[in-house]
């Protein structure tokens, strides 16, 4: 579905590049159908080398693409929207915003009501086509929804949600990558302390986390059900889990999620 769609990313930073690289991995997707902009185009040289149109002209990009992805920081949204709004074609284009906290209402302040506008929140695993992407829109057009879903499924898995949950989705899916990585770092540090070199500890931890995720996905398990398969009476696993809980492991994670959510809500 996305093979012939012209896609543009304005403000192609880390997340934008992850989406771009994920798209380029899709069978049949042509680099010539992708345009990206950034003030420092040197940072996008790798995309240019693959045949992607890399430049600084946001208006040109907005005029030429079918799907426009806004990858700019939230505080730059108004400025960029004022810049590109005059050349947007409401009956032809889709507008996708990656900006945290910028509502559909704020985006529609710049474009006609009939334009298809989406809030989209992937994560940096889009780079390897393993993102989870939550998206929402004000209009429920099946064809447009299907296009957005196909686009985001191209870089992982997409979930359509109601807009009031978008901030929560940002915390759980986008910030959540960092939470998992911090947990993995701690696991590696523990592995080093009990005798492994850093490289071997990292390899073990990486595969262990990957295996745990795949176990839950493929067998549709709740985490506790999977944990019950590992813990044995008087075994070392339950001793370690209980010590972690005594030290506030689960509670610290929950508090971290809530702290991130409160920070988004107050902005």
Automatic annotation (TrEMBL):
Positions with a binding annotation for NADPH: 58
EC number: 1.5.1.2
HAMAP family reported for this sequence: P5C_reductase
Pfam families for this protein: F420_oxidored, P5CR_dimer
InterPro entries attached to this UniProt entry: 6-PGluconate_DH-like_C_sf, NAD(P)-bd_dom_sf, P5C_Rdtase_cat_N, P5CR_dimer, Pyrroline-COOH_reductase
Localisation: Cytoplasm
Keyword Zinc among record annotations: no
Originating species: Nitritalea halalkaliphila LW7
Catalytic reactions of this protein: L-proline + NADP(+) = (S)-1-pyrroline-5-carboxylate + NADPH + 2 H(+); L-proline + NAD(+) = (S)-1-pyrroline-5-carboxylate + NADH + 2 H(+)
Listed GO biological process terms: L-proline biosynthetic process
Domain called Pyrroline-5-carboxylate reductase catalytic N-terminal: residue spans: 6-99
Function statement: Catalyzes the reduction of 1-pyrroline-5-carboxylate (PCA) to L-proline.
A cellular component term, taken from the record's GO annotations: cytoplasm
Protein name: Pyrroline-5-carboxylate reductase
Family, per entry: Belongs to the pyrroline-5-carboxylate reductase family.
Residues given in the record as NADP(+) binding sites: 10-15
Name of the top EC class for this enzyme: oxidoreductase
NCBIfam families: proC
Domain Pyrroline-5-carboxylate reductase dimerisation span(s) in chain numbering: 163-264
Annotated GO MF terms: pyrroline-5-carboxylate reductase activity
Involved pathway(s): Amino-acid biosynthesis; L-proline biosynthesis; L-proline from L-glutamate 5-semialdehyde: step 1/1
Gene encoding the protein: proC
Keywords tagged on the record: Amino-acid biosynthesis, Cytoplasm, NADP, Oxidoreductase, Proline biosynthesis
């Amino acid at each position: 579905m996305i093979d012939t769609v012209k896609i543009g990313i304005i403000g192609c930073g880390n997340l934008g590049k992850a989406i771009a690289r994920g798209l380029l991995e899709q069978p049949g997707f042509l680099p010539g159908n992708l345009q990206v902009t950034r003030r420092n185009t040197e940072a996008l040289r790798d995309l240019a080398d693959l045949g992607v149109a890399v430049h600084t002209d946001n208006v040109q990009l907005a005029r030429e693409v079918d799907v426009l992805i806004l990858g700019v920081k939230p505080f730059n949204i108004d400025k960029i929207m004022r810049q590109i709004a005059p050349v947007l074609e409401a009956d032809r284009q889709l507008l996708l915003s990656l900006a945290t906290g910028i509502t559909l209402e704020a985006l529609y302040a710049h474009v006609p009501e009939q334009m298809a506008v989406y809030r989209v929140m992937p994560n940096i695993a889009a780079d390897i086509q393993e993102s989870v992407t939550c998206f929402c829109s004000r209009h429920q057009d099946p064809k447009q929804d299907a296009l957005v879903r196909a686009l985001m499924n191209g870089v992982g898995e997409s979930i359509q949600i109601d807009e009031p949950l978008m901030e929560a989705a940002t915390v759980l899916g986008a910030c959540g990558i960092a939470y998992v990585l911090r947990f993995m770092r701690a696991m590696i540090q523990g592995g080093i302390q009990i005798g492994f070199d850093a490289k071997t500890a990292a390899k073990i931890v990486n595969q262990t986390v990957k295996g745990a995720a795949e176990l839950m996905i493929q067998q549709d398990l709740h985490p506790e059900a999977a944990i019950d398969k590992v813990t044995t009476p008087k075994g070392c696993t339950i001793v370690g889990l209980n010590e972690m809980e005594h030290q506030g492991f689960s509670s610290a994670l929950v508090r971290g999620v809530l702290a991130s959510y409160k920070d988004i809500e107050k902005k």
